[in-house]
Amino acid sequence: MTGAGPHRAVASDRQLAQANVARLRHPVGDPRVAGFVAALDRVNHLADHAPGFVWRHVAEHGHVAVSDEDPLVVLNISVWRDYPALHAFTYRSHHGHFTRRRAEWFERLPQPSTVLWWVAAGTHPTPADALARLAHLRRHGPTPSAFSLRARFDGSGRPERRRGRLADQE
């Protein structure tokens, strides 16, 4: 078992998958998204070496096109040891700098645009898996099989506590 502090222990045979979908404001070759495109290799390298990182889906340009009809829509998929590791990378590492600049490069999409779910250790979710989980979250709200950053569940399917509250009560 792993885990400490306010987070429940998670069986080491479970890992946290995350996927987020976004729509670029401009095509990849456009100078207005050059800062994002230029950072991809650095950010991916940072993720690959982050504590708690397990795996990420690798595509030719660092992200997966979601729709043949709209090549500006991209999907990012990764697997982490647990939520604290994902959170530390996303918001506390140099990646957080780019997260804060996302409005420069991406349009606002219907929310949620990020989905989390637990997978068996060694599982590598496909884009179809990720999109199905996101659709489930959008349709049913947070459940143990597809949940959000704000309303999380532990690897056993129980709501996680955040700052003295259940995550799904916020």
From TrEMBL:
Annotated DUF3291 domain residues: 16-151
Pfam families: DUF3291
Biased composition (Basic and acidic residues): 151-170
InterPro entries: Dimeric_a/b-barrel, DUF3291
Region (Disordered): 148-170
Coiled-coil zones: none
The protein, known as: DUF3291 domain-containing protein
Organism: Jatrophihabitans endophyticus
